[in-house]
Amino acid sequence: MKLVSNFGPSFDAPTSHEYRIWMLKEEVKDVQSMMKEHQKAWKRYGCTIMLDGWSDGKTRCLINFLVNSPQSTWFLKSVDASTSIKNGDFLYGYLDDVIHEIREENVVQVISDSASNCKNAGAKLMERKQKVWWTPCAAHCIDLMLEDISKIAWFDDTLKRARISKYLYKHQWVLTLMRKYTNNSEILCPAVIRFATSFLTLQSLQKQKENLVTLFTSQEWSESTYAKSHEAKLAKHHVLHDRKFWGRASFCIKGVLLLVCVLREVHSEERPPMGFIYELMDAAKEKIASNLNKVEKKYMLIWRKIDRRWDDRLHQPLHAVGYYLNPKFQYEDNFSNTNVRNGLFACMDMMLGKGKEREEADV
Prior knowledge:
single chain, 363 residues, alpha/beta, 3 domains, 5 strands, 63% helix, 10% strand
């Protein structure tokens, strides 16, 4: 806009014909040129196909296909899967077309969420494609772990009481007063991942406990019309008199927050998570046990919820290989164990077959 204004009133904007013909063709050439650089990286390093499902404004179920490599992530295409999203066979068909377009020898793995249709398509993929892995999305699996943990009676009751945060944000006057007493700190913590939000909000409530006590005992609050509603009295009770809530909130945070930290790590783009997820999950479980004073009765219930998703879906041979090949961990004590070695051998068997190359790898 600045360039246009600098040019002056004599500037003539391109016509619709120019936009649609030569300018569009130039843009297409630029995009195709960029894609060639990505294709070189796919061939040299291998690549990951990622599926991202979403619903648009017309409630159509769309699937984005993206290709990730050291060159960065490339948007390949989007398909309308409204009539076939629940069908694993149709989903496999879409995947097969994309793999054929990229060339099978360039594809290392396919990542999708761990819903049953994706799991079925992934199983079929690994049956029919000799060297392509299906891996469930780590962020989605960890979110499911948090969902499972949130259903434990102790956690469920605590999170329900923590809904006082929703009351604080429901009325503008109450929200303004809360921000005054919390020095403009927010309590609701929106997160990209659904169930992480509940636990992060619970942590914020705990951090602001003293400020919330001051708010609900202030003259401003007691003289306001908002203080007279049932919802307001319940929120005040939880903050001032519900010791069980605050004790349980502390327990929930100690038992889950480290898992939320792992979720943040795998969801970020600061570093590729494949070489770290194995160690991150193992370390998180140990720290959860330590936070709960190594009392088996307290931490084992959380561990079982984590292990159920980890063993069933998230723990993949590629994660073990990523850990094994990560130089950051190779010189640590207890670096290799049976699970890591089994994962390494499974990958070698699949990627190298049973010929001479496989035998040389053993040596």
